[in-house]
């Protein structure tokens, strides 16, 4: 059998996983010498590149000396934690990356816990030692303490470590002595990560991940645990929900570099992709045709949040989207269900309305943003957390929240979080910054990032992840300021924006088209006000040149999609079209709003 290592790279968001994976591919000459490659080739889809984050995990493989190394680059954002947990099933060891400045963060803890529980060998990479004022030695100690606390066994606590800078392309056993390349890291992988253990017995592969191609449909990815897979062979599928179906392996692939190569057979211990397997789900076992034995299956994340997706019925609908009908939206959501595992879709209380359930605002925002780029128009309602009945009592999701900020600002963070029913668990000082840990209902987190960044002049770094369902808490406050709602359909005029500047902040610039019922700004006070910003100066039949330009208008606040979703209230929608994001009242006319008072 070929010499193989299977590793997953895990870390908190932004600690450098994808950068390191890219560098490993360079070092192992996956790219030809004269080939020009962009940075972060692995974050391959548009949204990943733009946001600079990994959304789905990726398999790559490199050859180092005589060893084939399968590497799984995983996402660090907490909404995608379930994905990491799943793909760890394909690995025998993990490279745990920790930022030499930030140290272990909430997602470090989560992914490390999963790796330890699965009995994987951890190898520590203390990354970003090029950062000024970083403290690699302290970070090593913190990681050790963390592993101990998470119940690592003796052999796991005896983990190897390398230090370095993924960005600069070097790793070293001593961070004060930079090297030229990744040799120490590669050596650590080959020497410390165990070879795949191959047991005797009939064919077994747990479907752990999936890929999608518009030509061949869904592709099953997993690690072959036992036996030999052959192209064209008949197999049984032991279903995760029980029962067995028959199927056939049409084509087989192994990972090579960033792509896949077609092969005739795959041997136990390797990670492969199967094309043409009918009716499979994640968590099914591909097993012997006549003598099928299922493997322990994997947990798939339950959703914690939902949003209403509905057709765009604003006065501006259909102006720039290609797909606008409810049938379009339904078909697109059905397609998404094929590959987006943590997603659920339900028809809501009307034909044009769907409740879409996911793992968090980011998870659903990525879907909405993708649809928007494909030419869809739709409207989204306020994110709702899922309330679950447990022992006859309502329970809501609560999360672990960490905020890292300069010491003198910590009071503000604690105050904001307490207002939203968060409890402070502990505070840790390091250098001139402080890390505060809280437990807080998910409801309290919606919109918190915005407020926190404002209150700390952008200094706070916040991370959170779902912990569990707990009994519902009363009185988690919503937004503290009301909306400025347009009274008219027309064009926003400098003169009237200027007149209303002391009432709040605007979301629209002069010259923008707006409609009646659109939310054009944030009121300084708690209630909504209806404003007319389409009206020019009275008694002036001279075209207002000069006078208008003198007005000094604060630039409009332009929300990102996630900010907009976190901002809106129950009686408001975000209108999403390929070129515009608008906030609006569900009821556009003031008298309708009074009649339908949504609360
Ligand atoms: N200074 C410094 N920056 C680094 C280093 N490695 C990565 N970065 C930067 O850190 C940022 C995040 O890097 P990524 O590789 O995308 O991080 P990631 O862990 O894959 O992030 P997610 O996939 O979103 O969890 C990028 O701006 C990198 O350029 C390093 O060694 N030193
Ligand atoms: Mg990444």
Describe it:
There is one protein chain. By secondary structure, the chain is of the alpha+beta class. It has four domains: 190 residues, Rossmann fold; 85 residues, Beta Barrel (Elongation Factor Tu (Ef-tu), domain 3), CATH 2.40.30.10; 84 residues, 2-Layer Sandwich (Alpha-Beta Plaits), CATH 3.30.70.240; 113 residues, bipa protein (OB fold (Dihydrolipoamide Acetyltransferase, E2P)), CATH 2.40.50.250. The chain has 16 helices and 35 strands. The strands form seven sheets. It has an eight-stranded antiparallel sheet. Strands 2-3-1-4-5-6-7 form a seven-stranded mixed sheet, sandwiched between helices. α9 packs across α15 and α10 runs antiparallel to α12. The radius of gyration is 27 Å and the shape is globular. The termini are far apart. The relative contact order is 0.09. Guanosine-5'-triphosphate binds next to α1.
List keywords for this structure.
599 residues, alpha+beta, Rossmann fold, Elongation Factor Tu (Ef-tu), domain 3, Alpha-Beta Plaits, 4 domains, eight-stranded antiparallel beta sheet, seven-stranded mixed beta sheet, 16 helices, 33% strand, globular, binds guanosine-5'-triphosphate, binds magnesium ion
Task: Describe the secondary structure blueprint for this structure.
Layout: E1 3-10, H1 17-27, H2 46-51, E2 58-64, E3 67-73, H3 81-87, E4 93-99, H4 106-117, E5 121-127, H5 136-149, H6 154-157, E6 161-165, E7 170-172, H7 183-192, E8 204-213, E9 217-226, E10 228-230, E11 234-238, E12 244-248, E13 251-256, E14 259-263, E15 265-267, E16 271-275, E17 285-288, E18 305-310, H8 326-339, E19 344-347, E20 353-358, H9 361-373, E21 378-381, E22 384-385, E23 388-390, E24 393-406, H10 410-419, E25 423-430, E26 433-441, H11 442-445, H12 448-455, E27 461-471, E28 483-486, E29 490-491, H13 494-499, E30 504-506, E31 513-514, E32 519-523, E33 529-531, H14 547-550, H15 561-567, E34 572-576, E35 581-585, H16 590-596
Parallel strand pairs: 1-3, 1-4, 4-5, 5-6, 28-33
Antiparallel strand pairs: 2-3, 6-7, 8-9, 8-17, 9-16, 10-15, 11-12, 11-17, 13-14, 13-16, 18-20, 18-21, 18-22, 19-20, 21-34, 23-24, 24-26, 24-27, 25-26, 28-32, 29-31, 30-32, 34-35
Helix pairs in contact: 9-15, 10-12
Magnesium ion binds next to helix 1.
